[in-house]
Amino acid sequence: MSEPWSSLPEPLAAEVAEVWRHVFPEGFPAWLGNAGLDEADVAGALARSPFLHETLERHGDLVEQALTARPLTQPTTGDSLRDRWQEYLAEVTDEASLHRALRRFRRESQFRMIWRDVMGLADYHETVAAASDFADTCIQAALDWLYPQACEQYGTPYGADPVTGEEVPQQMVVLGMGKLGGHELNISSDIDLIFAFPGKGETRGGRRSLDNQQFFIRLGQKLIQALDQITADGFVFRVDMRLRPYGQSGALALSFAALETYYQDQGREWERYAMVKARVVAGDQQAGKVLMESLRPFVYRKYIDFSAFESLRSMKAMINREVRRKGLENNIKLGSGGIREIEFVVQAFQLIRGGRDRELQQRELLAILGELEALELLPSTVVRELRDAYIFLRNLEHALQGMEDKQTQLLPEGELSQARVALILGFESWQACLDTLNAHRDRVARHFADIIALEDEGDSATDLDEGWQELWLSEMEEEDALSWLGEQGFEDPPASLESVKELRESRTVQVMQSQGRQRLNQFMPVLLEALSHVEQPSVTLERVLQLVEAILRRTAYMVLLLENPGARKQLVWLCSESPWIARQLAETPLLLDELLNAESLYHPPAKAELEDDLRQQMLRIPFEDLEEQMESLRHFKKAHILRVAASELHGTLPLMKVSDYLTWIAEVVLDHVVDVAFANLVSRHGYPRRADGSACDTDFAIIGYGKLGGLELGYTSDLDLVFIHDADPEESTDGDKSIDNAVFYTRLGQRIVHILSTQTPSGQLYEVDMRLRPSGNSGLLVSTVTAFDKYQRNDAWTWEHQALARARGVAGCEQTLEKFETLRHEILCQQRDPSKLRQEVVDMREKMRASLGTPESRQAEVFHIKHDTGGLIDIEFMVQYLMLSQSHDHPELTQWSDNIRQMEELGRVGVLPVEDTEKLRETFITLRSTIHRRALQNLNSQVSGDAFPGEREYVRAMWQKVMSS
């Protein structure tokens, strides 16, 4: 008698023979046979999915119960899932047992869905419907149990019925987004949710009244924990709330009116795209219908709206950059010809014509494809090819995920995994599977390009003078080559020719594969020609060659520059203007993507647009993937700083705006870092509790000092930070692995510093300096607001109050930030002895000058713009002295934290003559502008000893006037 795995292909047969002994040490169990499964069925399942193997081995009792309740030969339906949950619900007595029941229910349901999918018992339609119904069931089940518990603790929320207007108890409405909303969920996926409630009001019947929004925020936190928190039994779903208004920084639950107002006034195009799939998946279905109807005008415009194409092009360009950055060409969702391109094609037509053609106002992609054919918006052949490709890609996606019960869209690299996928999909070999996949992807990419073509920025130069090619390929005599370079404007032909020769003969170039070498031979003549159009081509060549060397093994960037003359032109101009930019591009070649659009390159986005850009970029990265979060944040920062630097060089941003933009970038990054770190800790320990037992939102804030606080960041500035929180230090978190609030916030601070300062392949996000916190390096990393207040009033040195003059809240909880601003105002407005204060400020200035300024013996040769007498620090100390001495009489002085507006306010209230404040302001800007410009040239802040004589003399005179007793 043959073994049950004998018909399986190698190497799977050998693997199943090995695992069979571990799974069934006492022989094939009778209960599997009683469930209608023979040994060959089970061997086939073990070959296809290590997840099934692990579940049978470790949770055989649970599988036995599941198969007794419903055999695997029967399809998984919404009714069967809901019925089965009722049996698990019977075991639930408290929140901990709810968590356990949901997780055991998940394991059983995943086993059933994956088994039927990989064994070919379920088609695409059953699998996505079952996965979606399972998610709906779990969300509703958790909500059904948690809502009455919350009502018992906080009272029942009352408010106006959205239809009748009468006062009624309110319930939550849970919107499912993405594939969950479309009832097309993956077999192993996270879920995107938005929490809503009908309207304003308060709870009744609890120990104390609670605002409805606070009630539903706390209920939402509990719901997320029930599904997302990892316990000994695993988790149910990774829950992603970042599609809600304002993303992670927005309220966790919003009223219908707030949602409608947000989308009407601030909704972005990509949010229209997301809302196409929105569906009420749990909670009050009737109220949910009212909400969805109110949002319909935002999603579906009454007129034919071709602007959607441009929005989708932008989104696709962003995804292309991500694919390049992460090397995701083998990602069947994001890569060329993947699932996302089919979705874009379909949803483009929905957004463009959905307002007029109501047939397109559906959620399921395949149903909409049929409507596009019926409306003659797409030819039948295109619809058929897109439909076939979509089903194939989604089946492949389920095969990839069903192997390990893991969310992935990457093609496998190992031989075993490749053999599994081929077997699941019914192919004789992995190569046959790959051939079919590539054929589908080619067709999808072609249709995508025809329908939503990315703008072509031009072809590579075809009429290039042959001399450049001859120069690069060393087909010219050396004397002719030198003469050629001189005629083309190269100021140092010998050096340039030597650099070209060194590159051509380098080891890296010599061992390049034929395709890469061919691309280099196309690229270098084009690059050399482009260099001839800038000032100092020889100097610029040296800078650009750093980049060329960096991309020799990543020749896709050469193709990008070959095919985009505009990007090529920006590259050589920027490198000619700034060695600092040249180095940034060499260190991070992905920044070349920023050169594709000159309009955006020289007009960096304002803060709201920065927030929106970061939110879109990070939506596809789970919070728990800390490594990828950190890499993406570093790229985001570098890309936007490049835009600021390019704009400064181009003259489209004055100095004051440069610092503003650099500061906004830091603030947007810090806000996201707080969200990531907080979510990371909450997933482990739960939310910190307040004294009344309720869960905190974050109650944490970051205070920026120095250049960050004063809106004066430079290109390489570090961040002076202080962390505070306003939670009760005596309380603890509400998770299974509860810790004291004080420990939670200390770990939160540590995680934030780690994310910001760790060196990754993309470098450091920001260097962080925490020495300005209470008691400096010996103090606690995170202080309570109360402890911070006490320290500032009783123990802080004068220089710490000087630093407070330039401090402001930059990220975190709004309420905590407001408390800091109140505290700062009160400290700065304290009555002080002017003479004593003046002496302390002068003494501190002398210490700084002695340790950081130019030695007296060299002052005739060198002037340090920042630290020497007559420099920036003198101006800053004067302003800080006046702020501390005058704010008691002029409290309005404290409203600003930056030197410029503080100077202007000192003039406005009459502390200094306006002509002096204006002259000081001009001097300050002149000196800071010089530092900025020198930074872009990789130069320090030291200039010739005879520089700025008039400005320095004026600052010295003002110092005598203000600081002499």
Automatic annotation (TrEMBL):
For the region Adenylyl removase, what residue ranges are annotated? 1-457
**Domain Glutamate-ammonia ligase adenylyltransferase repeated: residue ranges:** 43-289, 569-821
Query: Zinc as a keyword?
Result: no
User: E.C. number, please?
Assistant: 2.7.7.89, 2.7.7.42
Per UniProt, the keywords (alphabetical) are: ATP-binding, Ligase, Magnesium, Multifunctional enzyme, Nucleotide-binding, Nucleotidyltransferase, Transferase
Q: Which GO terms describe its molecular function?
A: [glutamate-ammonia-ligase] adenylyltransferase activity; [glutamine synthetase]-adenylyl-L-tyrosine phosphorylase activity; ATP binding; ligase activity; magnesium ion binding
Q: Which reactions does this protein catalyse? A: [glutamine synthetase]-L-tyrosine + ATP = [glutamine synthetase]-O(4)-(5'-adenylyl)-L-tyrosine + diphosphate; [glutamine synthetase]-O(4)-(5'-adenylyl)-L-tyrosine + phosphate = [glutamine synthetase]-L-tyrosine + ADP
Q: Which Pfam families match?
A: GlnD_UR_UTase (PF08335), GlnE (PF03710)
Region (Adenylyl transferase) residue ranges read: 465-965
Identify the SUPFAM superfamilies for this entry. Answer: Nucleotidyltransferase, Nucleotidyltransferase substrate binding subunit/domain
- Using the record's annotation, list all stretches that form the PII-uridylyltransferase/Glutamine-synthetase adenylyltransferase domain: 313-451, 859-933
Its BP terms in the Gene Ontology are:
regulation of glutamine family amino acid metabolic process
Residue intervals passing through the bilayer: none
Instruction: List GO terms (cellular component aspect).
Output: cytosol
UniProt-listed InterPro entries: GlnE, GlnE_rpt_dom, NT_sf, PII_UdlTrfase/GS_AdlTrfase
Catalytic EC class: transferase
- Which cofactors does it use? Mg(2+)
**Record function comment:** Involved in the regulation of glutamine synthetase GlnA, a key enzyme in the process to assimilate ammonia. When cellular nitrogen levels are high, the C-terminal adenylyl transferase (AT) inactivates GlnA by covalent transfer of an adenylyl group from ATP to specific tyrosine residue of GlnA, thus reducing its activity. Conversely, when nitrogen levels are low, the N-terminal adenylyl removase (AR) activates GlnA by removing the adenylyl group by phosphorolysis, increasing its activity.
Q: Which family does it belong to?
A: Belongs to the GlnE family.
Under which name does UniProt file this protein?
Bifunctional glutamine synthetase adenylyltransferase/adenylyl-removing enzyme
Origin species: Marinobacter segnicrescens
Q: What is the lineage of its organism?
A: Bacteria, Pseudomonadati, Pseudomonadota, Gammaproteobacteria, Pseudomonadales
**Gene (UniProt):** glnE
